[in-house]
Design brief:
Elements: H1 2-19, E1 22-24, H2 30-38, H3 43-49, H4 51-57, E2 67-69, E3 72-74, E4 79-87, E5 92-116, E6 121-143, E7 152-166, E8 172-187, E9 190-191, E10 193-200, E11 211-215, E12 234-237, E13 240-246, E14 249-255, E15 259-261, E16 278-283, E17 287-290, H5 296-299, E18 301-305, E19 308-316, E20 319-325, E21 333-347, E22 355-362, E23 374-376, E24 380-384, E25 392-394, E26 400-402, E27 411-413, E28 419-421, E29 424-438, E30 443-446, E31 451-456, E32 459-464, E33 473-476, E34 479-499, E35 505-508, E36 511-514, H6 516-521, H7 537-553
Parallel strand pairs: 3-20, 11-24, 22-23
Antiparallel strand pairs: 1-8, 2-3, 4-5, 5-6, 5-7, 7-8, 8-9, 10-14, 12-13, 13-20, 14-19, 15-21, 16-17, 16-21, 18-19, 21-22, 21-24, 25-26, 27-28, 29-30, 29-34, 31-32, 31-33, 33-34, 35-36
Helix pairs in contact: 1-2, 3-4
Length: 555
Amino acid sequence: MERNLMQLREKFVCELKENGRSLSYDLSREDHRDVFFSQYGGEEVFKRECPLLYDALWRKSGAGQQERLDGYLVGPRDCMEVSDIAYDPNTVVSTNVTGRYTREMLGVDLMGKFMDITNGQILESMAVFDENITDIENTMKVNAGRLIQSDDRELQTQAEFFCAEVNAQGELCAQSTKVYSNILKVEGTKYIVKAVTVESPKPKDKSHKYTELLYDRDADRGETADYPKYTGVRLALGQDVYVKIHIPAKITIELNDEFEFIVDEADKIKGIYFKDFEMKIWSLDNGTVVFNKDDLAKNIIVTYNEKEKNKITYEFPSDWEHLMKMKIVSAVMLADFSCILPIKCKHGSMKYEEGQVTIVVSSDLDTESEDPANEKVKKIHIKFGCLGKDTRILMADGSERAIEDIRIGDLAQNMDGMPIRVTNIISGMEAEMVYVKTMGNKEILMTEGHPVRVRRDGSICTVRAVDLNGADLFLTKDGEEELRYIYMKPYNDRVYNLEFDGEEFLYANGFSVGDFDMQNHMPREKTTKREYSFDTKPVAEEMRKLLRLYQENME
């Protein structure tokens, strides 16, 4: 039985290789079922110890899947992966495993092993659990002195994500996804990779904290962009408006002199393991957006010289062929960037057969490794094309007055057309503001926390300026207006707010906004916590049992 199980696990790993970097268990298949339950002591043990989760597995809820529309991917996705393996022969071997979900999960177990499969060693293991989350991460680190020295070494990470959520019918659903990464990193104590040079994405302006990208707008006064603006990124399809994701990427890889790339003209992408390649951006607010690689072979530019076999450059098309609904877009669209490049290489002496080295270019690298195969870059800041000085307030007599010229005792007009007396004027300095412009050419600068009236998903509500999204309809004195631009704008000037006898809505530059009292009572952070329809404590207890069973049955 043990031999048969080992064969099944080897078969499962082969299937992972064929399907890319991750694979969800299909419990209708006997081989998948045997491999899955073996990690917890067998199906009968799982059923006895975790009856709620056992039943939930048969109501499996699929991972967040992207739709396809005219060749474009649509929307964020769930993402479970080994983000990088870093090797430093003098200090530490490190691997990061992350899971990011498009919706909040009731609970997520993250379990895994970090192995030196060349020498048959389990270097490290992990088993962690978290409740009511969209994001989970764990790092496994091993002192390099523990490794058996050999000419070459293959490091492997296998991780298991077991998650539970509640479906639309209020039923508990569960699923399990296996993630696999198999990476040849070193030859003895030498690095294979000499250098990774990222030409893009990176800030062209050295003063920039992030890589600044402009969509459908020019740079404002005092603002610089790192790349020419991307135009025509909006696409209206039916009743929804989408944004085309554009991010440039150009990466050069240089191997040490004794190694060379394996470049086959028949490859979809020269020198890269196509199935394992992935490029993406992600944030907790916007989810994970992946580069659509379906037609990459037609569009990628590869620079490779037969006389310089240890150097290659990949330039990817800036259009990711990925659409995102405008309702996801906000004034602060800050995202991490990552490019996983699994490259084919070999030792120039032909002593070794083809090997795989994974190049990781990411803004999320956080390891102690000095391995040149890992290159850290800046986060991506996408700006779409904040009440500031010169904002004009509608007064009781129907006139408009600049907010800095209003005095205590003056009469403004509220949304109901009634006069309201100014009892206090609050002033301060702001370095950055939220800038909004509507299709009707109304524009306003607001601090991040300033309350604004909008129609969202058919209902009128009040949101903070920083929480506005591209699908909001703004309530103005001329009716509802669609958004044209929203982004953070450098300001470095004085801001003003007005206080009245009670909380009031007034018109500022034609927008319906709240006063100082209302701003102070607005929630400071968006909340995505959801109410579940049953007691979650037994489920959490069962998921902790799973961790214990996994540790007890780990090889």
